[in-house]
Design brief:
flat; mainly alpha; about 180 residues; 6 helices; single chain
Length: about 180
């Protein structure tokens, strides 16, 4: 495959990634209105997408080696920034819990951690099964292998979403569920 075709695919990927980098840019532009951990996480997202954009541009004009080097550099920088954001979020949660204790009120719950773990477990298992299904169907042809892998991935995502409780809307503890047909 030529470098131009790969660069065109990378450009399409970078354009479709706007669902991640536009909100991240907005979080950074909000400045002190957002918590520091959220701004760090937004910076990690932007570093990763900037690395993908740079790799695409280098692939189009310079070839695969500089593109691979830029991607290899952006990945660890974004991962380090994301880890720093996670550590900062932990500190912010501990500070908020201490503040709630001073007020004598119970701190809010930790959030949907179990749901994330369940969905991640199903996603990882589903992607592994998709690779196995694609490899098993490889003798039948590329289209059949891709179809089998895609079907297994979609089934794993739907099952994981259902098991994590993400496909149904639940009311928070102590609150009645809104019965309005116009709200989701």
């Amino acid at each position: 495959m030529s470098h131009g075709v790969l660069a065109l695919g990378g450009a399409a990927l970078c354009l479709s990634g706007s669902v991640w980098y536009v909100p991240a840019w907005a979080d950074l532009r909000a400045g002190p209105d957002r918590p520091a951990s959220r701004r760090l996480a937004a910076a990690a997202v932007l570093v990763l997408w900037a690395g993908a954009l740079l790799a695409t541009a280098l692939l189009a004009w310079s070839g695969p080696r500089p593109a691979l080097a830029s991607a290899a550099l952006a990945g660890p920088v974004a991962a380090g920034t994301a880890l720093a954001a996670r550590a900062r979020a932990g500190r912010e949660r501990r500070e908020a819990a201490a503040g709630w204790r001073l007020l004598g009120a119970p701190a809010p719950g930790p959030g949907p951690r179990r749901a994330r773990r369940v969905l991640l477990a199903w996603l990882v298992a589903g992607l592994g099964a998709a690779v196995a299904a694609g490899a098993a169907a490889r003798g039948a042809g590329a289209w059949q292998a891709a179809s089998a892998a895609g079907a297994v991935t979609v089934a794993a995502l739907l099952t994981g979403g259902a098991r994590a409780g993400l496909l149904v809307r639940r009311a928070a503890p102590g609150q009645a569920r809104d019965q309005s047909p116009y709200r989701w």
